[in-house]
Prior knowledge:
globular; seven-stranded parallel beta sheet; Rossmann fold; alpha/beta
Amino acid sequence: MTEVFFYHGAADKVAAACALLGGAYAQKKPMLVFAPDKALASTLDRHLWIHPALSFVPHCSADSPLAAETPVLITHHLDTPAQFDRLMNLDRNAPPDFQRFQRLIEVVGQDEDDRQAARARVKHYKDCGCEVQYFDLSKR
Length: 140
């Protein structure tokens, strides 16, 4: 069963995602990032070049020739991604076939629309039998 982790209350959703990806990379845990909004994916890519400030998180597009040797991949679709253990969802909807991943990481901002969409995803994951854990980023 997929473990679901909701990091909510992020003042800056992209910065929070970068921090989480930096932590995963430091622990040598590869991550696939689902960002179907191409503008958001581009913003995440740019931020990963400079955040965290004192290190670099190797990343590329999932369809890049370097994908096989890169620990963080960003994708617009989940049709044929590398089979990573962890998926970070940056979409407002639950990712398709999320159950094939052992861990699903959600990052939720403080925007009311983002929070409402996150509540719907929580309900969906619970209806699918997943246990959901919550981490409040607003207190950091």
